[in-house]
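#dry-run=false #mode=assembly
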Amino acid sequence: MGAVQSFRDMCDSTKNTNVRFSLPAVCVVWQTAMIILFGIFIRYDEESDPHWFEHKKLNNISSDIENDFYFRYPSFQDVHVMIFVGFGFLMTFLKRYSFGGVGFNFLIAAFGLQWALLMQGWFHSLGTDGKITIGIENLINADFCVAGCLIAYGALLGKVSPVQLMVLTLFGITLFAVEEFIILTVIHARDAGGSMVIHTFGGYYGLAISWMLYRPNLDQSSRLQGSVYHSDVFAMIGTLFLWMFWPSFNSAITDHGDGQHRAVINTYLALASTVLTAMAVSSVFQKHGKLDMVHIQNATLAGGVAVGTAAEFMLMPYGALIVGFCCGVLSTLGYIYITPFMEKHMKIQDTCGIHNLHAMPGVIGGIVGAITAAAASESVYGHEGLIKTFDFEEAFKDMVPSKQGGHQAGGLCVALCFGIGGGILVGAILRLPIWGDPADVNCFDDEVYWEVPEDEESIPQILQYNNHMRNKDIADTNFTMEPVGRSRS
Amino acid sequence: MGAVQSFRDMCDSTKNTNVRFSLPAVCVVWQTAMIILFGIFIRYDEESDPHWFEHKKLNNISSDIENDFYFRYPSFQDVHVMIFVGFGFLMTFLKRYSFGGVGFNFLIAAFGLQWALLMQGWFHSLGTDGKITIGIENLINADFCVAGCLIAYGALLGKVSPVQLMVLTLFGITLFAVEEFIILTVIHARDAGGSMVIHTFGGYYGLAISWMLYRPNLDQSSRLQGSVYHSDVFAMIGTLFLWMFWPSFNSAITDHGDGQHRAVINTYLALASTVLTAMAVSSVFQKHGKLDMVHIQNATLAGGVAVGTAAEFMLMPYGALIVGFCCGVLSTLGYIYITPFMEKHMKIQDTCGIHNLHAMPGVIGGIVGAITAAAASESVYGHEGLIKTFDFEEAFKDMVPSKQGGHQAGGLCVALCFGIGGGILVGAILRLPIWGDPADVNCFDDEVYWEVPEDEESIPQILQYNNHMRNKDIADTNFTMEPVGRSRS
Amino acid sequence: MGAVQSFRDMCDSTKNTNVRFSLPAVCVVWQTAMIILFGIFIRYDEESDPHWFEHKKLNNISSDIENDFYFRYPSFQDVHVMIFVGFGFLMTFLKRYSFGGVGFNFLIAAFGLQWALLMQGWFHSLGTDGKITIGIENLINADFCVAGCLIAYGALLGKVSPVQLMVLTLFGITLFAVEEFIILTVIHARDAGGSMVIHTFGGYYGLAISWMLYRPNLDQSSRLQGSVYHSDVFAMIGTLFLWMFWPSFNSAITDHGDGQHRAVINTYLALASTVLTAMAVSSVFQKHGKLDMVHIQNATLAGGVAVGTAAEFMLMPYGALIVGFCCGVLSTLGYIYITPFMEKHMKIQDTCGIHNLHAMPGVIGGIVGAITAAAASESVYGHEGLIKTFDFEEAFKDMVPSKQGGHQAGGLCVALCFGIGGGILVGAILRLPIWGDPADVNCFDDEVYWEVPEDEESIPQILQYNNHMRNKDIADTNFTMEPVGRSRS
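#status=ok
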């Protein structure tokens, strides 16, 4: 008994969660590196440069409204809301990890988007002068890139330190940019809403890391797993902002005109359909048909993931509804059966259930995309429409839809390989005992990395005190002195 | 005593709130029907079809930016936020019905918008080939149509089952589409922001249903009526998103250019004015001049409703302020006097007070619209402006403003009739004892239809336990085993 | 002892917080004045008037899409969200002042924007016919103007009455409009994102008022200072909506095309950089490296303030990162050192720490703007670009960048003077004992001005009761009768 105890003590003593040196160091070093690299590489593109005036003249552009900014800015802001409020609040559902959910999401997204601008720039926007020029589309792509890492965070929520998250993000963005380059440019797959590039990759990346970081004694913090009433309502803020703005996500970088328009319609319909089947399955599997907030918060979004690749194609409105229908069912079943199964038999602890919300629907999305692409024809798209939608130009001008379908499938495989392989690699790095991750007993607890205010329980006492003070003489009471204002020195 | 008791027991025993069969069945059947009907009827319109390229050439459209998508997409997303976050969070104010407020709102909106695309399509967008073609404007109109049913839900909040809500939505959308066709197309009334079509109809539809479903013993759940501190703050999220995006609501489908521009200005001003008078009346009717969150959450929005019809007309900025001024006063007085009066003497239990926020301001909006239309003149609008604003074209090219005013008033009457008549009809259907509605004692309680997490009270115990664990040897404690992750199997 | 006590009693007895007469009177009188003044002065401009059709023809405008509405409406809605949800929810962090935070923010913003339309109109948009014509840009400017007053409210949060806030707003808007006219028109400084005009002015205006209203015994309400767990999560809603939409804030009124595009990129980058350094400094100054929500909620936004003036200039992407880097550090240090210092030694009680979030970063922004302007050259901007960016036209066509830098510095001084001077003046007015401000012991307490619902503590009792009721015969229980619905009569 004593031996076991001292061994466990030792294990726990290695869990030093003090990040007072490592977190600031990582933040400052990496931010400094960003400044230097941005100074060397990043410039404004011709649409955000004061020479736009001359550019307009040269290219015979009649009005400022044709600046790409006006085609994409509303979608960009919606995507931005999804990244910071959507993902952030979706992760506030745990009873005592809301600060970590929304706060670390904020941290890694803010770092990730800078690194993404560089990585994606080197692969996609590097000019002949060795400079990366950026405009609104690059900002959207950077947000997309970050989404992959935030998805991965979902699997690890509550079990990792902020320093680990920064490392996860650095590697995640790097892997993402390479994978994206291979899928979109080398293989020439289309993936407007990122079913493969973002969701499949991000999902399996997170699951593989979670597998590498398996905690056999995680039940020691089971008292903190699960939600309370208000934290479930907070999570609905995240769910709804993701759900509402998903049409913008899937259409943000599609073709001007009909491309953006069609992607919005398809996504809107797929999501609506998902809500109904997710609710149906949630109800049918509970005693008395009661609905489960876990399913409502997550499975209702699966349709948006699964329609990502095909959103810009001629999926047809009923096709979008069918995709949403199936995903609502499968995703909810995933929460009921697959997540506990993976936990018990596969050593994968998936806090937010990203397998059911991102990984599996992402794969479905890749398959739907491949089928829809293979089935494309000039009779449906028109001659010009087919070329424009699938970008059958330059090196790929001899491409045909059936072959494009194969390329789409190839893209899906690349995303899977990068996700799983990359996750195992990064997971191995994150196992090193230097990152300040919490002990099993302290998982899902904001106390570890945050200054947490006093409990709510003191409120009734305050109110009682309050009423008391109003009714009696206040002069002979001594108050404790405390500095005013938002300082907490 | 025993006889009374057994009678009440019997009544209560008929209240079987188990929706494990009915809810999934309704969701799956109706979603399947949607897929089939969409397959038969719904197609992309020329602006969201890959033939847009040829369409542009044919119609001499110079740039993709003239795709209707770019005129309406930002407004569409704002309206979407109003429907899902605005209405959803406004209904989270009850202390133990936040899940039902935001969750059922989500369910019926997601179903309603699909059915609305079909119903409105049959009336407004049916092509000669028997197909309905949809684009961004149809999505906005579908959201509008759903709003009518969500308003009705406000009157019934906490007292109906999700199955009843699905039935209410199916009939509500159907009635809406017919009513809208009569008002806008047959009578040729204008109603940009839907004061009549949406708010008057939706308001009276909900009130009539509530009257049909009157519960004399609703006081048995009075302990759950009312808010708690945090639920009132949640409801403010709904209020503010409705308030902020109302200019988009009223301008979303008005004419390109000055029409959208003017509708935004009028709505912005009317809403600002309403806030001040709602606060004033709220304060003057309370002891010590304290403000009541019920009024701040609801009455501040009445100006947006009342300016809906006239938002695109030359209401003039001061006119918008006057409308807002009056509605702030009347709506707040409604919460203070009319809602309790209707409850006591008219057997109408209106949980959210939709009479004061939608029904009454909607009627005011219809009247303001009729007056403003009747007062229109070429000197104010210009020759072309008058024709364009009131759509005096084709069959109505001989229309004059004074006559248009009469048509507006006629439209208001139609909205009233459809709301009240439809509500009584649907209310009768919903009285059937087959829908799984809650007993009087269980109203306003999420426990009935939702898996509700453990109470917050356990948090301090968790924290105590937490501190305890940090300070002592953890090895000899036995924890209960529980599956990790978002599964709740 | 008795004498001291009776003196304090007298002081407290002068603190009559009953605003039942004053608040409604102020609201109604001022709203009526607005209606009259709007009737005399405010008209639609040519882009929101039905004569737009003729205006298009006359000015050879080819499409409705070139109406300024489509250039600015998405940004306007984002700014609107920042004003009402961003500022509003950022101020919900106090444990028992969430109603006051979001509610009074709503009140003064709704009043302020009307008065701002008039004040700014008289200075900037007064036509030869004595009418002010308004369009979407005026609405944005009105929201900007209101932001100055909301910033000032941050310093006074919890310590003033709604009537004082209305007075503060009336004078604040007036001072703002004069100051803005001097800085932008007379001095010809550029200030797209309002670092000087909005943040420096608003920050010092609030701090000066707080200094005038110093409360030596504010520690009497120290039990209510600080947050609880959920109120900190609510405040994050405000933080994130401010953070996400700040690019829209800084670009909302910049030049069409490259101007708006560049301002977005610069702001996006500066804010990302700020998050990392704010987190770093927050962690390094706490025991165990724990993060403090006060810093995450506030200091992460400082970069957006500091990049405001230079956002439309050629600050370069790395320049934006540097500005963000410095502001994250300085702002967090401000919360740790400066706010307590000002409280103890300068008699300035700054509830939200606006000095660190607005005043100081605003000054930095003014300096950055002056340097960037002075360093501008034709080689970087191009000939046309330089003229367009700095508006070197008409009376200022002989201006050169170096001189413009001086004008920028001059503008900063004017903002400082108006802020401090105006604050002292208005603070003196607000000291009069007629405004219904709370006693020291009642600060930060919603009870004073709001009907607050029963405490959450009653929920477990409700639940217990609930379960109890389900298990036993309900017939012989007497319930208290209470009106249903949202009425609280």
